[in-house]
Design goal:
This protein is α+β, with helices and mostly antiparallel strands and about 525 residues long. Strand 7 and strand 8 form a beta hairpin. Helix 1 crosses helix 5, helix 2 runs antiparallel to helix 4 and helix 7 runs antiparallel to helix 12. The longest helix is centred in the C-terminal third of the chain and has 36 residues.
Length: about 525
């Protein structure tokens, strides 16, 4: 494909500056975002061992709810009956005693029945470490509140889109010749450029989806207004019919949980309910039946849900129930699913994780390539040392990007010993302390000279993840709960970081000097 040279140079400059401006933020977003693909299993791993009795059978759920209401009448307003308990939700009944939307899981009471039928409760806060990593990726590493974090994320997502479009235009004239070219025998800068081109070209559809959906999430309010305009008429008539049905006579007592499950199975035989979430407003109960089928398209990583009448067991809306939505809501769900990877099961989540970590490397290599070009130009102009702008970007690239790797590894290594698996403020302070420490090292040594020691630090901290996991379980006497998958991945990843740091020519390997 023929494109004029001046146009290619223009878009190359646009690609460079848009990528540099957004690269530092996007590295953190993609690296932490790759971790969120395993938010649920990592949350289970980080959860403390429960001292509750075994979950009650379905036939005794009503007995458990009644005894809990007698013990704490306030729980009747909002509670969850867990049909499939796990490490994060270890009991058949749970309710929150506080609400903290910004900081993830709130203070929660877990209830069960002892062998003699008496009520047993445990109050604790579920681990908030994985929720913090999710928020870190949403707010691109900045400790901002929800409103300002989304605004900055939206601006970065738009710059990200500009970098994608301009980079594609730059690549088009030499697409066939350069896309799959890996000239490993050339100088180091050419090798890095080839890897950058190959990684960016092959993962372009993924990055387009991430850029478009991230901008949509950031500017969700006008999008929601459009959604209401497009879909509210049908929803309103549906709601009117639903309200009309509710005005008639109905039983004044709630169905038992087992009856709700049986009624749900009759109406949705292809999905298995996970939990019954009750809430009360003005004395009227509403009920959501949550489901999780990893092979189906869902709007949220936690799965889908259906609104069900707690008095009759009849489904009242299936707008967020996988495979039972209208065409309009299916289209909206697909947008969410393409961003969160909530379709296709664990294979898709692993692919998304690899693409996320690959995207982080894409931004790191892009910054190093820009620094290399900048240094070559400055040397040709007679400068014997880096300019102030070059030094600043070099320090930020090394300190922030490798600091992000170290900070996330530090959070994962610490959750085994933090109270209740780590409260939000604690893991947030730990992450930013490690990130700031790495940034100070980069300032002290310089961006190029700090790469090797920072990689060593990142490798050592990553090695601490399996060591801390094993030490915690040995001390608690529950070695059987070791997560060998997580520990194995941490060992391999830590080894890779150490190998990169200890190579004979580390400055060239990590891009501190790509002009060779």
């Amino acid at each position: 494909m023929k494109i004029r040279g001046d146009i290619v140079r223009l878009y190359r400059n646009v690609h460079s500056w848009a990528g540099i401006t957004a690269g530092l933020f996007l590295f953190i977003a993609f690296y932490a975002g790759g971790m969120t693909m395993f938010e649920l299993p990592l949350g289970n791993w980080a959860s403390q061992t429960s001292m509750l009795p075994a979950p009650v059978p379905a036939e005794r759920l009503s007995e458990l709810v009644q005894k809990a209401q007698a013990s704490d009448p306030s729980m009747a307003a909002n509670y969850t009956v867990v049909l499939r308990p796990d490490a994060a939700s270890p009991s058949s009944l749970m309710w929150t005693t506080s609400s903290d939307r910004d900081h993830g899981p709130a203070r929660t009471v877990y209830a069960g029945l002892a062998p003699d039928g008496s009520l047993v409760t445990q109050t604790r806060t579920p681990s908030q470490a994985m929720y913090f990593l999710n928020i870190l990726h949403q707010r691109i590493g900045l400790p901002l509140n929800r409103e300002y974090g989304r605004l900055v994320m939206g601006i970065v997502a738009l710059l990200y889109a500009v970098a994608l479009v301009s980079g594609t235009i730059v690549l088009l004239p030499s697409l066939v010749r350069n896309l799959f070219a890996l000239r490993v025998n050339e100088n180091l800068r050419r090798v890095w450029l080839d890897f950058h081109t190959l990684l960016g070209g092959c993962s372009l559809p993924f990055h387009i989806v991430m850029a478009a959906s991230a901008a949509g999430f950031a500017f969700h309010q006008p999008i929601m207004a459009l959604e209401k305009t497009l879909f509210l008429p049908a929803a309103s008539s549906h709601q009117s019919a639903k309200n009309h049905a509710r005005t008639g006579q109905r039983p004044q007592t709630l169905l038992e949980p087992l009856e709700i499950v049986e009624a749900f199975h009759r109406q949705v035989p292809d999905l298995e309910p996970e939990a019954l979430v009750y809430s009360s407003r003005g004395g009227k109960f509403s009920l959501r039946v949550t489901v999780q089928n990893k092979a189906q398209i869902a709007r949220r990583p936690e799965g889908g849900y259906a609104d069900v009448s707690p008095y009759t067991g009849r489904l009242t809306t299936t707008d967020f129930l996988p495979d039972h939505q209208t065409s309009a809501f299916q289209a909206l769900t697909l947008i969410y699913a393409l961003h969160f990877g909530t379709y296709g099961g664990w294979l898709v989540r692993w692919v998304y994780a690899v693409l996320g970590f690959g995207g982080a490397f894409l931004f790191y290599s892009g910054n190093q390539l820009w620094l290399s070009s900048r240094r070559r130009r400055e040397r040709s102009e007679g400068l014997m040392a880096d300019s102030f702008g070059t030094r600043c970007l070099s320090v930020l690239t090394s300190g922030c990007m490798i600091g992000c790797v170290s900070g996330i590894s530090a959070v994962l290594a610490a959750v085994s010993f933090l109270p209740e698996g780590g409260h939000y403020q604690t893991v947030e302070a730990l992450f930013y302390a490690v990130l700031l420490g790495c940034l100070l090292v980069a300032v002290w040594l310089g961006g190029a000279r700090s790469i090797v020691p920072l990689l060593v630090v990142a490798g050592v901290i990553t090695f601490l993840i399996p060591i801390a996991d094993m030490a915690h379980h040995l001390m608690s006497g529950s070695v059987a709960r070791l997560d060998l998958g997580l520990d194995g991945v941490a060992l391999v990843y830590g080894s890779a970081l150490m190998i990169l740091a200890l190579r004979k020519r580390p400055r060239q390997i990590m891009g501190a000097d790509l002009t060779v």
